[in-house]
Write a structure and sequence with these properties.
Blueprint lengths: L7 E7 L9 E7 L8 E11 L20 E8 L11 E5 L11 E5 L3 E3 L6 H5 L2 H14 L22 E4 L5 H12 L4 E6 L4 H7 L3 E4 L15 E6 L3 H8 L2 E9 L18 E3 L7 H12 L7 E6 L3 H8 L7 E5 L5
Helix pairs in contact: 2-3
Length: about 325
């Protein structure tokens, strides 16, 4: 390991079984050492926090569980002939089975990394990979819609999208905001989003044809009348997911990124042939590269709800897990965020 890289670092750890009931803590841990032909050591600049990640099954890493799987940083150590050499500005969604990146240094694999889009800062970049990849895979891998044309061309329609419709719940959240934008870039004929009152204009600005305010009351979906959708992408779960089933048209699909949808299927009111699937987003450097092109072309934008300094990690995780954010909550690790 290069002499300029320290032997120890600060890291946020998540130990819910601690006797003092303080699950999150800032600890000093050894700097990880890259091993194998794919591993890069990344000097982390920023980490985006995903709502609910502290409730994911434990342990991720038995010895030192570190959260945070969306990051942006600079390559400090790279394997030979890597497309991301030392000094590259990168971002990534890293694998959930490894330690996360809420730490000064982290490990990312070649297949997880993308070059950080030009024109945005590390905090903005960290808010992209996990959410944008989830939306991409929901729409174009599992949802059956055709991918948008490569940037800068977009919005002209792709096979499997013209005349199609999609409903996105929590459209102002991390996954939802990218789903709305990507659906429009692919030429989906009708894109409807739901959100709270303060985010209606924001979601409309993302390109949604219609925006429904869930704070209008329990019957807010009645505004749709008899309209049904080819794809319902639910980012909320619970009762919202149960209602989502009734909004899919015959032989449509319900995709939930909050929880498996099958358990929420209502006993009645579901159209014939509606199917569902549950997936966990996969790291994909190629898809992330496509997303980067759209960001650099000004066709896709990210949003940050708030940025917290490293020593305010508890407040950052509490805000992210409140469920009421626009875009993502970001934890700044380096001083340049």
């Amino acid at each position: 390991m290069a002499a300029s890289i320290p032997s120890s670092m600060l890291a946020v750890t998540h130990r819910p079984s601690n006797n003092n009931n303080k699950a999150l803590a800032l600890e000093t841990l050894p700097v990880p050492v890259p091993a194998g032909p794919e591993e890069h050591l990344i000097r982390v600049h920023a980490v985006a926090i995903t709502n609910g990640e502290l409730r994911w099954p434990q342990p991720r890493q038995p010895a030192d569980p570190v959260p945070g799987y969306d990051m942006a940083g600079t390559v400090a150590v790279a394997p030979p002939e890597s497309p991301f050499p030392v000094g590259s500005k990168v971002y990534a969604r890293t694998a959930f089975e490894r330690q996360g990146s809420a730490r000064t240094y982290s490990i990312a694999l070649t297949g997880e990394l993308g070059l950080m889009p030009r024109g945005i800062n590390p905090a903005e970049a960290a808010a992209v990979p996990l959410s944008a990849l989830t939306a991409w895979q929901a729409l174009f891998v599992h949802g059956g819609f055709g991918e948008p044309a490569p940037a800068p061309s977009s919005g002209t329609g792709a096979p499997g999208t013209q005349g199609k419709s999609v409903l996105v719940t929590a459209a102002a959240g991390g996954v939802g905001m990218f789903a709305v934008q990507l659906a429009r870039l692919a030429g989906v004929g009708r894109v409807v989003g739901t959100c709270g009152t303060t985010n209606v204009d924001f979601v409309r600005g993302l390109g949604a044809h219609e925006v429904l305010d869930y704070r209008a009351g329990p019957g807010y979906l009645a505004a749709l009348g008899d309209e049904r959708f080819d794809l319902v992408l639910d980012c909320v779960g619970g009762g919202t997911l149960a209602e989502a089933w009734k909004l899919a048209k015959s032989h449509g699909v319900v995709i939930s990124v909050a929880e498996p949808a099958e358990a929420k299927r209502p006993a009645s009111g579901v159209a014939e042939g509606v199917r569902t699937l549950w997936f966990i987003v996969e790291a994909n450097s190629g898809q992330l590269g496509r997303i980067t092109q759209f960001i650099e072309a000004g066709k896709l934008k990210t949003a940050i709800d708030s940025v917290y300094p490293f020593d305010e990690f508890e407040q950052a995780f509490a805000k992210a897990h409140s469920g009421h954010v626009r875009g993502k909550v970001v934890l700044g690790i380096a001083d340049d965020v």
